[in-house]
Specification:
The chain has 97 residues and is mainly α. It is built from 6 helices and no strands. Helix 2 packs across helix 5 and helix 3 crosses helix 4. It comes from Sulfitobacter brevis.
Length: 97
């Protein structure tokens, strides 16, 4: 099967799923635990500015998360869950450890 055919088949499957045809669909239900962002940041020992920079978000975004005005979603939620388990994970990776 060519790359084009593979992509075409994948898109057709996605469209069928979006239209409610789940017969051949592989659905993965992934649950990421919500975290207390301020608590996670405090575990790292970083200031708000340094923590925001280390995870690639604006300080304002971090403040909104910490104050409960917004909640991290998607990759940010996963990253924060990882940091909650191992607070040094970002620094270790950035240092090449």
């Amino acid at each position: 099967m060519s790359a084009f055919e593979s992509v075409k088949n994948g898109l057709e499957e996605a469209l069928a799923f979006a239209n409610g045809d789940t017969a051949d669909a592989k659905v993965h239900d992934v649950t990421v635990t919500s975290v207390n962002v301020a608590e996670v940041r405090q575990q790292t020992g970083l200031s708000q500015a340094a923590f925001a920079k280390s995870i690639g978000v604006a300080k304002g975004t971090l403040l909104n998360w910490e104050h409960g005005r917004r909640h991290p979603t998607g990759p940010a939620q996963v990253l924060l869950a990882l940091i909650a388990k191992k607070p040094s994970v970002v620094q270790d990776l950035l240092r090449g450890a």
